[in-house]
User: What shape does this take?
Amino acid sequence: MIKLTKKRIVLFLLFIFPLICFLILSTGTNNFTKLPVVNKNVIDISTIDATKTFKDNISIVCFLGEDMDSNKGGFLNLNEKIYKKFIEYNNFQIIAIYPKGKEKEAKEIEKSISAFTDMVKWNFIAASKDKITLFYNSLNAKETLSNYYSSKVFLIDRNGDLRGRIDDEDNVDGKLLGYNMKSVSELNGKLKDDVLVLYYEYYAAFKEKNSNKADRKEVGL
Assistant: This one.
């Protein structure tokens, strides 16, 4: 019999219980299905910072730009509505890319965000402007990168592929490649749901894999 320790109860409440509630209560179009892969050609973040990678992680990528203070509200929204929700989830990270030479401004943004949360899964990465442009272009985003800043954030899966929506009602072509961090409703109503769908996708695949192993063991394979 499994002993219910305080640690197990906390882990259940933080991870398993939210997933169960999401599956029961949510009514979005992406429920119980895999979140679409909308681009398989994303450059790995390790080409910019060798200590970081998209592999085996669920990553939210944002571009801080050159005028970070003017756009600070969006980063605070992202922290409040998404980061705090998933900070306890395994292999979750936020990648915040900014131009080299803007370290002081990046530190100020980090300081502003850290007043409200533990920064352990925020990763601030400086890069040359050429590398930022090259990386951003690999996302095939609809919007152009303005002064190395984008109001959109991007969801990258464990294989380094861009995830999004192909039937989004707010886009004429149905494609949602990035999520507007200036919009609390979009972060709450779309990005949060899609991250949960992605986690459930991996959870379901893990269960299926273990179930298949058990079946093969029973028949002596």
